[in-house]
Specification:
single chain; alpha+beta; Helicase, Ruva Protein, domain 3; globular; 17 helices; 4-stranded antiparallel β-sheet; 333 residues
Length: 333
């Protein structure tokens, strides 16, 4: 006689390292499906079938509450990205993709080291692009994370739209816990607005095609106002206490050169007339540092709204370019 044993789903989840939240917001999901049917002509039955195959992951909900940018100081954050191996592999990525990087710079004005550093910080040049199914990430955050539900429902809408537009299978695409995808970690709305087919093969593949990744990152920066050959950020000295009045958590440029002397900022840079600037404070291993950001630094923060992230990209880019220049003869032979 064959005996059947009932194994609780919760136990299976532990055994197979699957984390599922049971309290699914069915009403919100049904409303979303109805919206996609009415506005975009999706088939309700097909969407119901798709969502029936998704999970709601507690690990995703846990991860989104503790981003590194909010819990680490600058010197701790810097150690993650400014490492010899990441610099060397950045140079290798540059050498392997010189032609497309040069083409991107000519078309969009974004230098190779910045494009390379973005990809290096985001996914270690494609090695860590995420193992979550995007549909699971967006389903979890759109219907089970009230704090940002509206944002992630919008991203879910974009995800379903571009999957249809590009003829992708939405069940197969993978990314980060927050639904960021491919080598450059584009969220769905960024994919629809900025991803491009940069080698004319009729698909914008940011998962496996470095050509499209390079073009898409450059296009993103260009459309966010990157200025070709313009400075990014410079270290300054502060005196007195007046500068503290302008230190805040905002990223927007908010002062001018005419303000610098009055608030005790000493600098050696030259600025254009009416150019907006921003003073940032960073905690290094040896104390506080002060940096004066310009437009291009602000553009980097449009990719990830964090001064730590933007500084990591900037400094990694400098290290990659410096290493490549110093070892040009060896690397090319």
């Amino acid at each position: 006689m064959i005996k059947f044993y009932f194994i609780p789903i919760a136990l299976l989840c532990i055994v197979f390292n699957i984390s599922i939240v049971y309290a699914e917001d069915i009403n919100s999901r049904s409303e979303f499906i109805f919206y996609m049917e009415e506005k975009h002509g999706f088939d309700r039955q097909e969407l119901n079938s798709l969502f029936d195959q998704t999970i709601v992951s507690q690990s995703i909900l846990d991860a989104i509450k503790r981003p590194a940018e909010k819990k680490l100081s600058w010197h701790q954050y810097r150690k993650i990205f400014i490492k010899k191996k990441r610099i060397e592999q950045g140079v290798q990525f540059w050498l392997d993709n010189q032609s497309k990087l040069r083409e991107a710079e000519e078309k969009f004005g974004v230098p190779p080291e910045i494009i390379t550093a973005i990809i290096g910080v985001e996914t270690y040049y494609g090695k860590n692009s995420g193992s979550y199914r995007v549909i699971d990430s967006l389903n979890t955050l759109a219907f089970h994370y009230p704090k940002r539900a509206a944002f992630f429902r919008s991203e879910l809408e974009h995800f379903l739209l571009f999957s249809r537009e590009q003829n992708f299978n939405p069940e197969e695409l993978k990314g980060s816990y927050a639904g960021a995808m491919g080598m450059p970690q584009f969220i769905s709305s960024s994919y629809r607005n900025f991803a491009i087919d940069f080698d004319n093969d009729s698909v914008a593949d940011i998962w496996n095609n470095p050509n499209d990744v390079i073009g898409s990152v450059a296009n993103y920066f260009f459309k966010h106002g990157w200025k070709n050959k313009a400075p990014i950020i410079t270290k300054v000295i502060v005196e007195g206490d007046q500068y503290k009045k302008i230190l805040d958590n905002n990223l927007e440029l908010n002062i001018y050169e005419s303000d610098l002397e009055d608030i005790g900022i000493q600098y050696n840079s030259t600025f254009q007339d009416n150019e907006q600037l921003k003073l940032f404070e960073f905690q290094s291993e040896h104390g506080l540092e002060y940096w004066l950001a310009q437009n291009n630094f602000y553009v980097i923060t449009r990719y990830n709204h964090s001064k730590l992230y933007a500084m990591a990209v900037y400094q990694l880019a400098l290290e990659i370019k410096d290493y490549k220049n110093k070892n040009a003869n060896i690397l090319e032979n």
